[in-house]
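Hey team,

Filing this mostly as a record. A colleague (T.K.) asked me to run one chain through the structure pipeline before their review meeting, and I want the input and output archived in the tracker in case anyone asks later how it was produced. No errors, nothing strange. Just documentation.

Input sequence:
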Amino acid sequence: MTSRDEVAELASQVVARLLPGLLVRTQESRFWSTTPDDEVLQGILVSAGIDVSVGRRSQSVDVKTTYNVDALRRPEDADDSAGDLPAEGWRSSVVLHGQWHIEEPQTLSDDAVRAFAVKVGVMTLHPYARAHIQTAVVAAGWPTYTLDVLTHQDDLFVSEDDPESVDLNLVTLD
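Output structure:
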């Protein structure tokens, strides 16, 4: 496992090689919704997840974040033995891709690239995901939903074995 200080130091190795310019693009966006009504709103439970992967190209480090947010309610009369009854609510899935131009990215260690994804990539792409999901939810007629602000992005990658350290292997290396 890697301490939070070590993660910051590894990420700084990449940051030191950054060239001007950043490309952010929405790679994929999916939104599903039922018709919003007051009854459905009473039982909505929101769950959100994020997956992060990072890769190196000849001139860049690329970070991809995949957000999956479900705001669902099953009908109260649903019986668990009835199988998969249709859910009520909405689902949003957004895949964002950030590309940072770097001097000689191939010479960076795998851990440095993963640490960059944790410390810089997630924090940079998260506001774009927040805005994208919020816009889709409101456009579908639901009350505003906004993802939480990330204040300690390391917490997304905390090791189960050692809560004081970061598990960089939770970031997929392409």
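Quick notes for T.K.: Strands lie at 2-3, 18-33, 45-56, 60-73, 88-102, 165-166, 172-173. The mean pLDDT is 90.
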